[in-house]
Amino acid sequence: MFDFILPFDLFIARITDGLRASCGMILTPLLKIITVSGNMGTIFILCGLLMLCFRKTRILGVAALVALAFGYLFTNVILKNVITRKRPFIDNSTEFYTFWQAAGSLIESGYSFPSGHTTAATAFGVLLFIRKNKRYSWLFLLIPVIMGYSRIYFVVHYASDVSGGLIVGSIAAILSHFSVKAIKDKVKN
Fold first, then answer.
1. Is the dihedral of CA 73, 79, 82, 86 positive or negative?
2. Which residues of the chain have pLDDT under 50?
3. Contact call for residues 161 and 113 (beta carbons, < 8 A)
4. What is the average pLDDT score of the chain?
5. pLDDT digits over 77-130, tens only?
6. Which of 4, 38, 87, 98, CA to CA, is 20 to 30 A from 57?
7. Nearest 5°: phi and psi at 182?
8. What integer pLDDT is reported at residue 24 of this predicted model?
């Protein structure tokens, strides 16, 4: 099913592996902290819950948690189980497997497309981008970029999986924004 996109995925994996080989001792520990912090959306859920504790950020916290829930539903409940794409490191006869070993053999289970970590990071980052002051909110878009890159770096996802996560996470953020806004407006009236 994904054979048409495999050359793109391999091209990105080769570039990423080259970067890892060049400066892995610097990047690997930092990216490992980032990628592990995204396990089960933990860091984003905690941030959303923290926002609920303060009146000024309460609605933003609700919207963040709703975005994460939408992203989880679309990615982990529906798409991964319908598409059933295997992870890049599963076939030990591929270049991906070699890259995966060189990057530290990070173990992940489940299906690959789309990236759940990237979906969660995007749902969170795009929602903050939408709802906060545009002067600095573009910085929140770095969250999904860095998370997605970490998933490619450790070869637990193909670049196309990360692209799928960016799309699904953006949709989740937009749906959350409008849903929470509509409920807030209805409650106000």
1. negative
2. none
3. yes
4. 93
5. 999 999 999 999 999 999 999 999 999 889 899 999 999 999 999 999 999 999
6. 38
7. -65, -40
8. 65
Query: Rounded CA gap, 40 and 50, in Å?
Result: 17
DSSP 141-169: GHHHHHHHHHHHHTTSS-HHHHHHHHHHH
Q: At what angle do helices 159-188 and 116-131 cross, to 10 degrees?
A: 40
Q: Rounded to whole angstroms, what are the CA distances from 91 to 73, 97, 101, 164?
A: 28, 7, 12, 21
Instruction: Specify whether the CB–CB gap between 107 and 83 falls below 8 A.
Output: no
| Sequence letter at residue 77 | V
pLDDT value for 185:
82
**Side chain identity, residue 100:** W
3-state SS of 67-111 is HHHHHHHHHHHHHHHHHCCCCCCCCCCCHHHHHHHHCCCCCCCCC
